[in-house]
């Protein structure tokens, strides 16, 4: 197979994922059919089936792609010393990874039942627990443990809370990251 053919297949797969996310956002996961996805793409269902057999396959592929940078970050974080500087770098890298994942996080928020019922929910939860392990300050008080958790989850909450607020998306992301880093710094400053 030539690289041109492979590239086209990759483009089609990406188009399917993009259109599926659009339709999931418009109608919800449960109310979106493969037929609607194929129609929006102006392809046959057979062409769609060549790439994905089910809606769940499309959704899982999206989460796998989003998860790759997170898995790489977790792997990197495990090899680093547990210093404040490393934890701040983890938050910076996570913020970068979240830039392109906003539609997927919106999907998770709006389709919590679906996410919970599919394997992606458990996989995401496991990744978040690993991230929390990397960020937690050893021997920290409960208050500081909450600061560490909040540093991570404020990045998710900020994406939703500021979504409809007027302003530059990069400025919003930077502000959210700054708050997260401040929380992490506080957890380290007052740690025993």
At a glance:
The protein has helices at about 5-25, 35-40, 45-50, 55-80, 85-100, 100-110, 110-115, 120-135, 140-160, 170-190. The chain has about 190 residues and is mainly α.
Account of the 3D structure:
With 192 residues, the protein is an all-alpha fold. It has helices at residues 3-27, 34-41, 45-51, 55-78, 84-99, 102-110, 112-117, 119-135, 142-161, 169-189. α9 (142-161) packs antiparallel against α10 (169-189). Mean pLDDT is 86; it is low at 1-9. The radius of gyration is 19 Å and the shape is elongated.
Structural class: mainly alpha
State Rg.
19 Å
**Which spans have pLDDT < 50 for at least 5 consecutive residues?**
1-9
Please tally the β strands and state the result: 0
What is the level 1 CATH name of the largest domain? Mainly Alpha
Mean pLDDT: 86
**What name does CATH use for the topology of the largest domain?**
Tetracycline Repressor, domain 2
The number of helical elements comes to 10
What is the architecture of the largest domain at the second tier of CATH?
Orthogonal Bundle
